[in-house]
Amino acid sequence: MDWEALQLSLYLGLAAAAILIPAGLLIARALAWRRFPGRSLVQALLALPLILPPTVLGYYLLVAFGPGGIPGRAYEALFSGSLIFSFEGLVAASLIFNLPFAVQPMQRGFESIPQALREAAWCSGLSTWRTFWLVELPLAWPGVLAAFVLTLAHTLGEFGVVLMVGGSIEGETRTISIAIYDRVQALDYGAAAYMCAVLVGISFAAIAFLYMLDNRAGRAHAR
Question: What's the pLDDT tens digit per position in 166-183?
Answer without folding.
Answer: 888 888 889 999 999 999
